[in-house]
Design brief:
Elements: H1 4-15, E1 24-26, H2 27-36, E2 44-47, E3 52-54, H3 57-75, E4 80-86, E5 89-94, H4 122-132, E6 136-141, E7 147-152, E8 156-157, H5 159-165
Parallel strand pairs: 2-4
Antiparallel strand pairs: 1-3, 3-8, 4-5, 5-7, 6-7
Helix pairs in contact: 2-3, 3-4
């Protein structure tokens, strides 16, 4: 019988397939709300840039919560997670041990886990949410040697753009 986290992850996966990007929320408020839903211990969240991401807020919330959970699970309770906008999207990076280069593409596949007790669903949900929004996701190394997830093809706006004209596009 699946445990409650596995059942929740499975339900999130099935909901990740369809998405709309007509919802906009501030990046900082979105990630802080998501951070509050994850057991963070002594982990730290740093929002590097302000701005707006146009996405289905519930689904992008699932994306952030899964990335935060993964960073803490693999980086420990003292990990620092950074989130910010880029020229054509956003990133989530941590200062944990990182993901070995040969595993970076595989971690997004369903069932892949470095933990024999893991479900292998969390990062796959991240990939599915990105795909539902027509975003690309790349897994790499952060400046601190940890994991970094870059999402591109994302409609974003700086705070000034979002306030001035309803949201100038940064991305597609």
């Amino acid at each position: 019988m699946p445990d409650s986290r596995q059942a929740w992850l499975s339900s999130q996966s099935s909901r990740a397939h369809s998405s709309r990007d007509d919802d906009s929320r501030g990046l900082a408020s979105t990630v802080r709300d998501c951070w509050a839903h994850v057991r963070t211990g002594d982990a730290t969240l740093e929002v590097m840039t302000e701005g707006v991401v146009y996405a289905d807020s519930r689904r992008v919330g699932n994306l952030f919560e899964n990335l935060f959970h993964n960073a803490i699970e693999h980086g420990g309770e003292g990990v620092t997670v950074r989130v910010g906008l880029t020229g054509d999207g956003f990133f989530v990076a941590d200062d944990g041990p990182g993901i070995p280069e040969p595993d970076r593409d595989a971690v997004l596949e369903p069932g892949w886990s470095s933990d024999e007790d893991g479900t292998g669903l969390g990062l796959n949900i991240v990939a599915e949410v990105a795909a539902a929004h027509d975003w690309d996701v790349a897994v790499g190394e952060s400046d601190d040697g940890g994991a970094r997830f870059d999402f591109t093809g994302v409609r974003t706006a700086s705070p000034d753009d979002a306030a001035g004209d309803g949201g100038a596009d940064r991305g597609t």
